[in-house]
Amino acid sequence: MTDSTPTTLTTLTTLPASAAIEETIAVVEAAGAVIIEDFIDSATLDGLWEDLGPALAGQADGDGRLVGEKTRILPGLVRRSARSVTVMRQPHLLGLARHFLQRPVRAWLGEQRIEFVPTIQLGISRAIQIQPGVAPQGLHRDDTAHLRTHPGPESRVQVMVAASEFTARNGATRVIPGSHRWDDERGPRDDEAVPAEMRAGSALLWLGSTYHGAGANTSGEPRTGLSYAYDLGNLRQEENQYLSIPLDVVRGYPEDIQRLLGYEACPPMCGLYELSDPMLLLRDGQG
């Protein structure tokens, strides 16, 4: 899946939350990204603001090194808000992650060939707020965190939930549709990027290999998004969930969420605890 020629896609597809997962997958296969309207309902969004808003307001703007100037980032959303469960379980996000990441790998064990299906795990959960006057972010691929080369298998599926309206003027995330098909010799250009304009509660979903970046905020108001990403279970998490979320908080979540946080061994043998599934740690009360 590689193409070093200029992209021919100039728009982002928007689908309703009621769209079939298969339709969402087809759009992302072609474009590397999709917008889902009403990704979460207004009650969930209001609750996330209630849980996260005060801490985000208390964050200092970045200094231009790890965090950009006039940009606030609040990490560890799963620790800070149990309403993150709604985002993590959202069918379009989970459906894309399972389709693109959980692809079987076959390996020989002696004379027997065995098929392994990797797990997925939460790689990041963070609020990102860009202030008025912020410059556009450089277009990039998020799977650079995993030192991926292209073409190659996907390692991440990410979502940006619009906690406030996203417009071209206030710095909506810009995406180059079709750029997930490019090899590593093809660099991104700003004139190829399309702003992901959407109302609050909607979301942009994209692959780790898709070029994107925040736009310039030339409005008078901040633009806020909530970003969560699923990564392959055999990779190092960008945000260390084991240190970010205390065990007593993890134990309060349902088992499917615990496993998505990384408390699950990835076949054939990554992330074991006492030569067994890490769920043993949560069940026996250790730690």
UniProtKB/TrEMBL annotation:
<dbReference type="GO" id="GO:0016706">
    <property type="term" value="F:2-oxoglutarate-dependent dioxygenase activity"/>
</dbReference>
<keyword id="KW-0223">Dioxygenase</keyword>
<keyword id="KW-0479">Metal-binding</keyword>
<keyword id="KW-0408">Iron</keyword>
<dbReference type="InterPro" id="IPR008775">
    <property type="entry name" value="Phytyl_CoA_dOase-like"/>
</dbReference>
<dbReference type="Pfam" id="PF05721">
    <property type="entry name" value="PhyH"/>
</dbReference>
<protein>
    <submittedName>
        <fullName>Ectoine hydroxylase-related dioxygenase (Phytanoyl-CoA dioxygenase family)</fullName>
    </submittedName>
</protein>
<keyword id="KW-0560">Oxidoreductase</keyword>
<dbReference type="GO" id="GO:0005506">
    <property type="term" value="F:iron ion binding"/>
</dbReference>
